[in-house]
Amino acid sequence: MTGGDLKLVGIIFNVVVLAVMIVSGVWVGLDARKTGRSKLEAILWGLFAGWFIIIGPIFYVFFKGKFYK
After folding, report:
1. Phi-psi map region of 36: left, alpha, beta (phi>0 left; psi -120 to 50 alpha)
2. Distance between CA atoms of 24 and 49, rounded to whole angstroms?
3. What string of DSSP letters covers the chain?
4. Of 53, 69, 68, 67, whose CA–CA distance to 16 is shortest?
5. CA-CA distances (angstroms) from residue 28 to 14, 23, 36, 38, 66?
6. 13 vs 17, 25, 46, 50, CA distance in Å?
7. How confident is the model at residue 64 (pLDDT cuts 50, 70, 90)?
8. Is the Cβ–Cβ distance between 39 and 14 less than 8 Å?
9. In whole angstroms, what is the distance from residue 48 CA to residue 53 CA?
10. 69 or 67, which is more confident?
11. pLDDT tens, position by position, 9-62
């Protein structure tokens, strides 16, 4: 593998991670809004889930019913 190939693999990896972060944040934000959260709260949940790629959505799904009833 040459240096150019490694650079391409690195770019593709970064794009995939960024896409997963965005999709995760948007999904959680939309779900939070759909379940009756305010716009600000939905945005904050979306940012939290997007920043913490795996733990954020799991945390949201596990605790969304326990924080608010």
Report:
1. left
2. 6
3. --HHHHHHHHHHHHHHHHHHHHHHHHHHHHHHHHTT--HHHHHHHHHHHHHSTTHHHHHHHHHHHHH--
4. 53
5. 21, 9, 13, 13, 16
6. 6, 18, 22, 16
7. confident
8. no
9. 9
10. 67
11. 999 999 999 999 999 999 999 999 998 889 999 999 899 999 888 888 888 888
Q: pTM of the predicted model, to two decimals?
A: 0.79
The contacts found for 1-4 with CB under 8 angstroms, 24 or more apart, are none
Tokens of 40: 């600000």
Token digits for 30?
């939309």
The amino acid present at 16, given as its one-letter code, is: V
